[in-house]
Design goal:
This protein is of the alpha/beta class. Helices cover 36% and strands 11% of the residues. It has a seven-stranded parallel beta sheet, sandwiched between helices. Strand 3, helix 5 and strand 4 form a beta-alpha-beta unit.
Length: 243
């Protein structure tokens, strides 16, 4: 109801720009736009797929119902990834402080314990980022650094998306939008994943690898292939990794 007075009335021509706005019909419906009156221009990424690799290494479902069964395999794969990048800084996107605390706890007895930085709330993020930038191989564990932070070049060469970031169904507005538009809910999740994967590849010469460890990503992809941007999928691999 606010789109007409706050946006549409401000000009006869409006340009909306985004690295990933999602599917046209969903985008238009969410803003009250008539798709037939909207010109839509999509462009690929100028970054080479081999420089922004995404590795889907499913460790098991990380949903609330399945995490206890999956966490052992998940922790072992996280340790293998840390072993693979012993001298490179990285990020673990954990989706909640509770999961972040659990990840840091299980790694506290490993050879990588001293690498871990865990800002326990939003006010600690800037200090953690500053400390991370001054370190050689630190790893930030945070549920709230999927956007707004620039991990260019050596600030991060790898990252882990520990859990598929579905919007919270504890939010009444999210539930209402999900009930009204099924694709909207899936698209918000996909946009969050695409946004997170872009934290570590910030320019055409930058390189980094993203690991998605939640097996629920496979279901998200299988049910919503039409919503994923082609340029992003060009970088995705599904290797077989033993937990």
């Amino acid at each position: 109801p606010f789109t007409e007075p706050c946006v549409h009335s401000m000009g006869s021509v409006r340009i909306y720009m985004s690295a990933f706005p999602g599917e046209k019909k969903v985008f238009c419906r969410s803003l009250g736009l008539d798709p037939g009156k909207v010109a839509w221009k999509g462009m690929g990424s100028p970054f080479k797929p081999e420089n922004r690799r995404v590795c889907v290494a499913a460790a098991g479902s990380m949903s609330k119902r399945n995490i206890e069964e999956s966490f052992g395999s998940f922790a072992r794969i996280v340790s293998k990834i840390l072993d693979t990048h012993p001298n490179e800084r990285g990020i673990i996107h954990c989706n909640s402080y509770q999961l972040g605390s659990r990840i840091v706890s299980v790694l506290s007895n490993s050879d990588h314990a001293t690498r871990m930085l865990f800002p326990k709330n939003a006010t600690e993020r800037e200090a953690a980022f500053t400390q991370h930038a001054a370190s050689q191989n630190s790893v930030i564990v945070s549920p709230s650094m999927t956007e707004g932070f620039d991990f260019a070049d050596d600030l991060a060469r790898w990252q882990i998306i520990a859990k598929v970031p579905y919007p919270s169904l504890g939010d009444a507005q999210v539930v209402a939008k999900k009930d009204q538009e099924r694709d909207w809910y899936a698209l918000q999740t996909i946009m969050a994943i695409v946004q997170a994967s872009g934290r570590i590849c910030r320019n055409e010469k930058d390189k980094g690898i993203t690991y998605i460890l939640d097996a629920d990503f496979n279901r998200l992809y299988d049910n919503n292939q039409h919503l994923f941007p082609t340029w992003w999928m060009d970088s995705v691999k599904w290797p077989k990794i033993s937990p």
